[in-house]
Amino acid sequence: MIKVFIDGKEGTTGLKIYERFLERKDVDVLLLPEEKRKDIEYRKEYINKSDVTFLCLPDSAAIEAVGLVNNAKTKLIDASTVHRISPDWCYGFPELSTEHRNAIKNSKRIAVPGCHASGFIALIYPLVKSGILSKDKKLSCFSLTGYSGGGKKMIAQYENDNRNIDLSSPRQYGITQMHKHLKEMKFVTGLNAEPVFSPVVADFYRGMEVTVPLFKEDVNMSAKQLHEFFKEYYSSSEMINVASFCGIEEFSDGFIPANYMSGRNDMKILISGNDERMTAVALFDNLGKGASGAAVQCMNIAFDLPETTGLK
């Protein structure tokens, strides 16, 4: 039995991680008494008697929690922003490379990728690593997400019967170009500049659609050739699937719904366009491959289990 503690189980990500363990027989979830969930001494005790602790906390609290570890056994899987570009933590995206997968398997400190960043990195890291896209290329990216990505506060706003009429329309945010995922998007892909990033939240609960537009001169290939590249790159992945070219089979009506992967833990990549202009799209659930699903996948790998265990 793997002893699991979820520090911050009451939050959106923590709760979804917990739900993924309910039917598993190989996991023993350590549950703090409700009245002790913010008691630092109780948290310290539970962290140190766990085999793995998930940190589903604000950045400052995640840093504090790391300082509570006083043993060499407990693995930490951090869903906060704070350790994603730290050299002392491995980046929890096993599909990127064999090196990423092995680091997750052997590390005791794993940082879960950000939701928007997951889509961008899944599309751009392979191109930079393979030398197809120059590190000096300046890119743009837009991402459409469901409101659950904003946590309990935003969920309550959208599900309020007396909500503001503005919430019925898609809303762009991060307009100062200081979004917290930008450093991660640059660092992990190896780009020399952060992309121009336009995130949009809309009136649906969960799902994410991350799009990067490209010109032929950016990658020196057509859209069909780019599609073949991604099919080959992710051919052995169990959690990333490349759709047919232009989504002919999956999206025959020409529309790509952002909630297409809602309720799932995997990701679908869609390449479309023509000989001159193309778009690379990552579709996934912001609460699945974009958060709790990715965290559980990392735990499975770290404990040498099939990576899809408990991830329907």
**Which blocks of ≥5 consecutive residues have pLDDT under 50?**
none
Q: Structural class, from secondary structure content?
A: alpha/beta
The largest pleated sheet is described as:
7 strands, mixed
Helicity range: 25-40%
Order of helices and strands: EHEHEHEEHEHEHEHEEHHEEEH
Strand content: 15-25%
Strands in their spatial order, largest beta sheet: 8-9-7-10-13-12-11
Distance between the termini: 20 Å
Say how many strands there are: 13
Kindly report the average pLDDT value: 96
Shape: globular
Q: What's the alpha carbon Rg, rounded to whole Å? A: 19 Å
**So how many helices?**
10
Outline of the structure:
Helices cover 31% and strands 21% of the residues. The protein has helices at 12-21, 40-49, 59-66, 98-106, 115-129, 151-158, 182-189, 216-219, 223-233, 288-302; strands at residues 2-7, 27-30, 52-55, 75-78, 90-91, 109-111, 140-146, 171-172, 196-202, 208-215, 240-242, 267-273, 277-284. Helix 4 (98-106) packs across helix 10 (288-302) and helix 5 packs parallel to helix 7 (182-189).
Fold and architecture overview:
With 312 residues, the chain is α/β, with parallel strands linked by helices. The chain has helices at residues 12-21, 40-49, 59-66, 98-106, 115-129, 151-158, 182-189, 216-219, 223-233, 288-302, and strands spanning 2-7, 27-30, 52-55, 75-78, 90-91, 109-111, 140-146, 171-172, 196-202, 208-215, 240-242, 267-273, 277-284. The strands form two sheets. A seven-stranded mixed beta sheet has the order 8-9-7-10-13-12-11. Strand 5 (90-91), helix 4 and strand 6 form a beta-alpha-beta unit. Helix 1 (12-21) crosses helix 10 (288-302). It is globular and about 60 Å long. The relative contact order is 0.15.
